[in-house]
Amino acid sequence: MKYEIIRSKRKSIGIQVVSSEKVIVRAPMKASIKSIEEVINANILWIEKQKNRLKKTEEVKKNIEPLSQKELKELAEKACIVFRERAEYFAPLVGVTYGRITVRNQKSRWGSCSSKGNLNFNVALMLAPPEVLDYVVVHELSHRIYMNHSKDFWAKVESVCPSYKEHEKWLKTEGAKLIYQVRPGGTF
Predict the structure, then answer these.
(1) Mean pLDDT across the stretch 74-84?
(2) Phi, psi of 121 (to 5 degrees)
(3) What would the pLDDT profile of 156-175 be if each residue is shown by its tens digit?
(4) How far, in Å, CA of 82 to CA of 105, rounded?
(5) In this predicted model, what pLDDT tens digit does every residue of 17-69 receive, in sequence order?
(6) DSSP per residue, 56-96
(7) Of 124, 117, 110, whose CA–CA distance to 143 is shortest?
(8) Is residue 117 left, alpha or beta, with left meaning phi > 0 and alpha meaning psi from -120 to 50?
(9) pTM of the entire predicted model
(10) Residue 69 to residue 187: CA distance in whole angstroms
(11) DSSP, res 151
């Protein structure tokens, strides 16, 4: 396996899988090639797993047509209205209130809830099926009661959204495609 070594004033050897074709090994100035190779060999399965994951990601990205800045801005404006409407609908069902709602263009989070009750949602959810978007709204509203992912939290989510596991699974399998559609610039 080919890899690039970058030496610096660090104390340990680290491995970074950058793409399906590129692996960087960060090593202390005095680390021997033998010790570097030992670390690589000890982590070969992990490296291959990361390379395969990134290869799949690269394939998905090839087939995605990103939104233009204009389309993304329009989607974000619509999202502000939709998320507010859905939160207004579901908050009484969950039994909570909430503060401000913000729409963001994020790489990995679908939503979040602050301790002050402010809700944040990923604009990419606007490209998901409506029931998936609703699940994320219910999920974040449920954090107004439980700021964790305990059994009680999931019971609350399920009481309002009985098929939440199906929607969660959809996000795990299809969600990356949505992120790639809205990520070209990362902003609105």
Answers:
(1) 96
(2) -130, 150
(3) 999 999 999 999 999 998 88
(4) 15
(5) 998 889 999 999 999 999 999 999 999 999 999 998 888 877 777 778 888 88
(6) HHHHHHHT--PPPHHHHHHHHHHHHHHHHHHHHHHHHHHT-
(7) 117
(8) left
(9) 0.74
(10) 8
(11) H
